[in-house]
Each structure stands twice: as C-alpha cells, then as structure tokens.
Amino acid sequence: MRYLMLVCVDPDKPEEEIAGAPDIDVWVKDNDEQGIRLMGDRVRPGSDATCVRVRDGEVLLTDGPYVETKDLIAGFDVLECADLDEAVEVASRHPMAWHGVIELRPFWVD
User: Fold this and answer.
1) Which residues form the YCII-related domain (predicted)?
2) All structural domains of the chain
3) Which of 28, 29, 33, 2 is CA-nearest to residue 96?
4) Distance, CA of 110 to CA of 99 (rounded, Å)
5) Using CA atoms, how far apart are residues 18 and 1, in angstroms rounded to an integer?
6) Using one digit for the tens of pLDDT, what is the confidence trace for 58-106?
C-alpha cells in the first residue's frame, strides 16, 4: 500500500539537534535501498505557496497556505509499505518525528 508521508514543522520552534534522533541521510538511504521510499523532497515554505480555487467559473489565486495552521509542510515522501503498521514504523524513524509531526495518508486504491 502506498502512503503519502507529510513532514511538518512548527515554524515558531527553531530546529535543534535532539540526542538520539536519527540522521536524515541514513533514513533516506536505508528506505531507498529497501524500496520503501519511492520519492521525496523538501518543499518551499508556505509563504511561497499559491492556492488555486475556481468560483463561479473564475480562477482565483491567493498567496500562502490556505488554512491557518501551526504546523507547516516542509517536505514529503511517498512510501510503499505492507500496511499502516509498517508505515508508522518507517515514519517513527524519520528525524522530524522527534521534533515535528509526520502525517501519513494512504493513497486511494481502486
């Protein structure tokens, strides 16, 4: 099953080294080699986002994130896992899980 793993950070908290937190380069290498991480990357900050809506046939664009939220998406990974338990295990080894939030969303399966 495929999962979208959203890597979220609190913009008000400075990123800090946490003793015992995994190394991101090791996490990426291990999961790439195992065929679990299919792709992933960092994304630009919410201030660089563009939101697109169509209302009454008119395309409306706004800058920045659509909703006010404390955590902002900093990156993403697409995972191929046997089930949610494996996806949780993989996400729990991501360094951002130690001081940010990892959100897992399964892809729709037809």
Assistant:
1) 1-106
2) 2-14+21-106 (3.30.70.1060)
3) 28
4) 35
5) 31
6) 998 888 665 556 678 899 999 999 999 999 999 999 998 988 889 999 9
